[in-house]
Specification:
Strand content: 25-35%
CATH architecture of the largest domain: Alpha-Beta Complex
Structural class: alpha/beta
CATH topology of the largest domain: Quinone Oxidoreductase, Chain A, domain 1
Radius of gyration: 20 Å
CATH superfamily of the largest domain: Medium-chain alcohol dehydrogenases, catalytic domain
Order of helices and strands: EEEHEEEHEEEHHEHEHEEHEHEHEHEH
Shape: globular
Bound molecules: NADPH dihydro-nicotinamide-adenine-dinucleotide phosphate
Number of helices: 11
Number of domains: 2
Number of strands: 17
Length: 358
């Protein structure tokens, strides 16, 4: 019987046919006292979904059901759950579990727990595979299920569960605020949030995109300055040693001139790559020495940061720029292919779940 014994979802069975999905039933992990079951109502389509189904990072375990920007209604809660109740709206992002016992977890760094489990294409310690939000339901420990403020609409908030938090966390952890000059590289799902958060936090925002096609959008999202990096030489010449941090959301390294970005940082400032290209950045010897800048990354964000981000969005009226697309074999195919081609402003949210999942 589909729910509560099994869930249903749209799975990719072959990375060579990465946009072709078939509906399958799967068994979720055993229900624990801290678990909640959520009937999914919406799910964003993330660049990571594309890296995974194409096998671009590494071969996924097939069949794979992706989707980690999930919002829906809580339909069941375990005995010990205190943060959600049946009927609440809740979201789940790209992480579904961590041990919550180690020092790393206790310090609010659960996204760096050595035992972390991804929402899809991963396995719990007992071996149960994880399946994402292109599905009827998702089961999660309450720590990884977040109450959604009433003001935020379901389709618009879904992309925040991954794209939103992945850009919010490094901004706040690195002191984004009034007086800070923040560079954002790439205007896609993550990048468009980075611009909105940086602006909402009071920063001066510099946006770097490969062409000027997205300039009007960048300015509307809140950018103070826009630079097209692929339309001429010396695009960085006025900006050397000016920026307090750069958040790079680039998901490829094709023609990525790392040195040209790094030299725009102030002394000891940070280049934070949240984008996860399938190939490697080329960094010339001596580049980092010129300003002593640091290169780093950032993984999602903590539960507290997720709650703070959702509250900030509710307070400031921030939501994703999204295109809704009804979940179905055809809808998923279109969303994955257009996301792969960068043909979306700036996130797809899969909708109309009740038509596919009774
Ligand atoms: P999108 O495809 O929506 O956006 C990526 C953007 O990167 C593009 O729109 C483009 O912006 C820019 N870009 C692409 N190639 C290049 C390049 N060669 N040089 C410069 N800019 C480039 O993807 P998402 O925003 O959904 O995801 C971005 C990345 O973040 C992915 O690799 C994803 O896996 C990763 N990710 C990381 C997480 C983490 O925890 N760190 C969590 C979730 C996702 P433009 O056209 O403006 O140049």
């Amino acid at each position: 019987m589909v729910y509560p014994d099994t869930f249903e979802g749209f799975a990719v069975h072959d990375t060579k046919k990465w946009s072709t999905v078939e509906k399958i039933e799967f068994k979720p992990k055993p229900f624990g006292p801290y678990d909640v079951d959520i009937k999914v109502e919406a799910c964003g389509v993330c660049g990571s979904d594309v890296h995974t189904v194409t096998g671009g990072w590494e071969a996924p375990v097939l069949p794979v059901i992706v989707g980690h920007e999930i919002v829906g209604k809580v339909v069941k809660v375990g005995d010990k759950v205190t943060t959600l109740k049946v009927g609440d709206r809740a979201g789940v992002g790209a992480q579904i579990w961590s041990c919550l016992e180690c020092e790393i977890c206790k310090q609010g760094n659960e996204t760096y727990c050595p035992k972390w489990v991804d929402t899809y294409n991963d396995a719990y310690p007992d071996g149960t595979r994880t399946y994402g939000g292109y599905s009827s339901h998702i089961r999660a420990h309450e720590h990884f299920a977040f109450p959604i403020p009433e003001k935020l609409n379901t389709l618009g908030v879904a992309p925040m569960l991954c794209a939103g938090i992945t850009t919010y966390s490094p901004l706040v952890r690195n002191g984004a605020g009034p007086g800070k000059k923040v560079g954002v590289v790439g205007i896609g799902g993550l990048g468009h949030f980075a611009i909105m958060w940086a602006k909402a936090l009071g920063c001066e925002v510099y946006v770097f995109s490969r062409s000027s096609k997205k300039k009007a959008d960048a300015l509307q999202l809140g950018a103070d300055h826009f630079v097209a990096t692929g339309e001429g030489e010396n695009w960085n010449s006025d900006l050397k040693y000016k920026l307090d941090m750069i958040i790079s959301t680039a998901n490829s390294t094709k023609n990525f001139d790392f040195d040209a970005y790094a030299i725009m940082l102030k002394v000891h400032a940070k280049f934070i790559a949240v984008g996860l290209p399938e190939d490697q950045f080329q960094i010339s010897g001596g580049t980092l020495l010129k300003n002593g800048c640091y290169i780093g990354s950032s993984h999602l964000g903590s539960r507290q940061e997720m709650i703070d981000m959702l509250n900030l969005a509710a307070e400031k009226g921030i939501e994703s720029w999204y295109e809704a697309i009804a979940i179905s074999k055809g809808g998923i195919k279109e969303a994955l292919e257009r996301c792969h081609d960068g043909d979306v402003k700036y996130r797809f949210t899969l909708s109309d779940y009740s038509k596919e999942f009774a």
